[in-house]
Every structure is written in structure tokens, then in C-alpha cells.
Write a structure and sequence with these properties.
17% helix; 6-stranded mixed β-sheet; alpha+beta
């Protein structure tokens, strides 16, 4: 995926989960944060950030904060991006086949999944999660407790029980990572649900990304340690 009209800035503060104050060309601007997670390890004072300049009549801000440098590592923190890049990857045959059909945002039972796709009569539901939490090359999800995340995993288990294929995909929004694990300390229920999903036959996959200030492309598979 590509972004237009990218500008560089400096992070000042985050007064609430939707808004960040950033310095752009010497002026303090109110910017939309496209990630409602905590991101405390990313949004630190004076962090170098990249923003999409996208003013509009119905917008309260003219900028979306999409990426940040954590040391020398550029991390995309746009929570909309993982679905887009996985959708591009899926449609282009990244899973080893071109699906016969792909439908985003499909409901099954009491869960709404990011994708439903079919290939040669096989039917699959897939849920995609973006990963931005990193420490010494090890990445984890989530960065805050997520009842919704565990519910999605249990929904995927039900899909398997009913004869569907099911996938939980973790899009790691950075490069050069060692492995992915559930964040047991922050959300033990999600970690337990992920292990249950693995035992039930849900296909677990984690991919890193090629991250540029104006683009994000799904990259290689990353090992998962449960």
C-alpha cells in the first residue's frame, strides 16, 4: 500500500488515544492517531514521526500519524494498514494460490472476521491483527488487553469445528524481527485462546513488513512461539 503527501514531524504529546500533537515545519499541529492501542513505547517525546497530509471538509485534523522511528527502527502504526496489505497479499497469490473469491468483513456466528475467501471449494475465514510492540527484536500482541481479540480466536475455533478453514494472521508492522509471541503478561486470556486455536487446527501465521515512510508491503513469514 502507498500513502500520498507524506510529511515528517516530531511527536510532542498524545492528549487522548485519537489525537497527537506534533511539530511540523516549526508549527504544532493536531493530528489523528490511526491506532487506538497504547503505543507508549513508540510515541515518546521528540520521536521522529511521519504523517499523511490529508485535509478534508469533514475532518477535524489535517494529518494522520502513520509511522514512527523507535531508535533506528521505522514502525508503521496505522491500524488500518494490516488489513489492506494482507488483502493485497492474498489477492496476489501470497498464500500460494489465487482465491476464487475474497470478501472483506464477513460475519459468521457472533463474530465479524476481516476476510472470507474460497479456493477450489475450500472456504476460509481469516482474522488479521497488526503488531507494533517490539523489544530487542521480539514482537508480541496485544499491547493492551483485548477481549475482542480473544473472541475472534474462539470464533475461528468454531469455524474449524463447523468444517471451514480458519486463519489468524499477525501483520508485524516492521522489519528484522526474531519471532512473534502472544503477550502473556498483558493479556493471558488472549494467549490461552491463541494456544487453543493452534490446537484446534486454526492456521496461525505471522509476517513482517517492508516499511517505508510512504508505503507498507507484506514481507516474509516470522516464526511463532506460543
Amino acid at each position: 500500500m502507498k500513502y500520498d503527501n507524506i510529511v515528517e514531524g516530531r511527536f510532542i504529546e498524545r492528549p487522548n488515544r485519537f489525537i497527537a500533537m506534533c511539530e511540523i515545519d516549526g508549527e504544532i499541529k493536531r493530528c489523528h492517531v490511526k491506532n487506538t492501542g497504547r503505543c507508549r513505547e513508540l510515541l515518546t517525546p521528540d520521536a521522529r514521526v511521519f504523517l499523511n497530509h490529508c485535509p478534508g471538509e469533514n475532518r477535524k485534523t489535517d494529518y494522520d500519524l502513520i509511522a514512527v522511528y523507535k531508535g533506528d527502527r521505522l514502525i508503521n502504526m496505522d491500524s488500518y494498514a494490516p488489513n489492506i496489505v494482507f488483502g493485497e497479499f492474498l489477492r496476489a497469490g501470497g498464500l500460494g494460490f489465487i482465491p476464487d473469491c475474497v470478501k472483506p468483513e464477513c460475519t459468521h456466528g457472533d463474530s465479524r472476521f476481516d476476510f472470507y475467501f474460497e479456493k477450489d471449494g475450500r472456504k476460509c475465514f481469516a482474522e488479521v491483527k497488526g503488531v507494533t510492540l517490539e523489544e530487542n527484536g521480539y514482537v508480541r500482541f496485544p499491547d493492551a488487553p483485548t477481549q475482542r481479540g480473544a473472541k475472534h480466536l474462539r470464533g475461528l475455533i468454531k469455524c474449524k469445528e463447523e468444517g471451514y478453514d480458519a486463519m489468524a494472521v499477525f501483520v508485524i508492522q516492521m522489519e528484522n524481527v526474531i519471532s512473534f509471541s502472544p503477550n502473556e503478561k498483558t493479556d493471558p486470556d488472549f494467549a490461552a485462546a491463541l494456544r487453543d486455536a493452534d490446537r484446534a487446527g486454526v492456521n496461525l501465521a505471522a509476517f513482517n513488513c517492508n516499511v517505508q515512510k510512504d508505503s507498507l508491503i507484506l514481507g516474509e513469514k516470522v516464526s511463532i512461539i506460543l
